[in-house]
Amino acid sequence: MTHVTLIGVGMGNPDTLTLGAMRALEGCDCLIGAPRLLEGFPQLAAHREPLILAEEIADFLRCNPQYREAAVLLSGDLGFYSGAKKLYRLLEGFPVETICGISSLQYLCAKAHLSWEDAQPVSVHGRDCDMAAQVYNHAKTFFLLDKVHTADALCRALCSRGMGEAQVWVGERLSYPDERITQGTAAALAEQRFDPLAVALVLNSRVAPRRRVHGLPDEAFLRGKVPMTKEEVRSVSLSRLALREDDLVWDVGAGTGSVAVEAALQAPWGRVFAVEQKPEACALIRQNRDAFSAWNLEVVEGEAPDALRDLPAPDCVFIGGSSGTLGEILQLALQKNPAVRVVINAITLETLAEGMKWMTALPMEEVQVVQLSAARSRQAGNYHLMMGQNPVAILSGRGASHG
Predict the structure, then answer these.
(1) What pTM was computed for the model?
(2) Within its chain, how far is the Cα of 148 from the centroid?
(3) Running DSSP on this structure, what letter comes out for residue 306?
(4) Other C-beta atoms within 10 Å of 157: how many?
(5) Is the pLDDT of residue 402 over 80?
(6) Prior bond of 305 cis (ω within 30°)
(7) What b-and-e string marks burial along 244-261, b requiring 16 or more CB atoms within 10 Å of the CB?
(8) What are the distances in angstroms from CA 349 to CA 67, 79, 252, 394?
């Protein structure tokens, strides 16, 4: 039976190969791997089989038992987003040896004079990925990029989410004679163009703070003369939303953005759209977003429901103000996501009645109403008085199609 050696060849240049890997290659009578990797060893006389897919490699080895020693060349290191992961299972029954290589993460960090043990590795090869969210949540993030998720696309995504000052290293064609390593801010690199065969390292000095509880003090937010959901009401409302870490949230009638900011902090892998029609309120939302480094929060200036029509489907909707369009907002949210979770704050009896009417008429279930009456202490001389806040009704429910 063919003896198979899986070899991590680094970035592709034979100069980055270990001595043990080179000795193993010299003893093989069959080399298998991507054409780019096979081209790096013209001096070897072994048969060459240009294959990439793990299934095709395993089938070839089973159908060609005449080869005594076969080497499968894999880019980078065998344990770092490598095809070796699938090959281990497919080559069951073969005698398999492994020789590790140098990963692009190790290589780029060494070139940048940075350590890599605290880097968050991310591969975007053939998969959807919110690259800005990865940077938003980590001080140091490494990306394996592809033809769609390019280095310049990464930098533009960072700029669009308020992280244009993040430091970025882009490594193109690492280890080859035409290797290029570019360093700069995301804003400075966003309009450049980079080779698809690239990786990137991003340092974010403004990682979002992580809080384990909600209900930030009202004093933590800039308010001006714009209405704000008070911390006690905000805390219960966020609990009713039951946010998951990757939820997409609409905050309609966002005011100062206090709910939107806390939602963004609780859903660090998600996105929050704060929809507000008043320019002065939008300016406050942006200031509060910046103060908390809530870079996954996007301000949408406009009036609902029109401002909502082009937004992605929400997992959760918080409605703090609807300007008489509550029914249209709910219908649009359910149209985009029949399983959406909704929380409405009602200060007036009229809004409470309208909210109950629509949540009963529409296909929603688990409808609940909580009336919250909070009081805060105020010092008067040597005494403390309890000052009552306006009572608020908190309506919550979810679309009936949540399964």
Answers:
(1) 0.70
(2) 16
(3) G
(4) 20
(5) no
(6) yes
(7) eeebbbbbbbbbbbbbbb
(8) 82, 61, 19, 12
Q: How many CA atoms lie within 13 A of 186 on its CB side?
A: 24
Which H helix or E strand runs over 367?
Answer: strand 364-372
Pairing verdict, β 140-144 and 120-123: parallel
145-194 pLDDT, tens digit each: 998 899 999 999 999 888 999 999 999 999 989 999 999 999 999 999 99
Angle CA(314)–CA(316)–CA(319) in degrees, nearest 5? 105
Residue 366 in tokens = 């688990």
Q: What is the largest CA-CA distance in the chain?
A: 96
Tell me whether residue 127 is exposed, middle or buried, using C-beta atoms within 10 angstroms of its C-beta: 0 to 12, 13 to 18, 19 or more. exposed
- Location of structure tokens 């609780």: 266
* DSSP of 111-132: HTT---TT-EEEE-TTS---HH
Order across the sheet with 271-276: list the strands: 297-301, 271-276, 248-252, 316-319, 341-346, 392-399, 364-372
User: Which residue bears the tokens 């080559």?
Assistant: 91
Average pLDDT taken over every residue of the chain: 91
Q: Please name which of 201, 186, 208, 205 lies closest in space to residue 137, comparing C-alpha atoms.
A: 208
In tens, the pLDDT along 347-401 reads: 889 889 999 999 888 888 898 998 888 777 888 888 888 877 788 999 999 998 7
Tokens of 402: 């949540």
Query: Measured between alpha carbons, how far is residue 314 from residues 79, 216, 228, 307, 335 in Å?
Result: 37, 24, 22, 14, 10
* pLDDT over 70 at 30, yes or no: yes
For residue 208, what pLDDT is reported? 61
User: For residues 25 and 10, is the Cβ–Cβ distance under 8 A?
Assistant: no
Q: What is the pLDDT of residues 198-228, one digit of tens each?
A: 999 999 988 765 665 677 888 888 888 888 8
Q: Which long-range contacts (CB under 8 A, 24 or more apart) does 62-66 make?
A: 64/2, 64/30, 65/1, 65/2
Angle of helix 258-266 relative to helix 231-241, nearest 10 degrees? 40
- Estimate the crossing angle of helix 279-291 against helix 258-266, to 10 degrees: 40
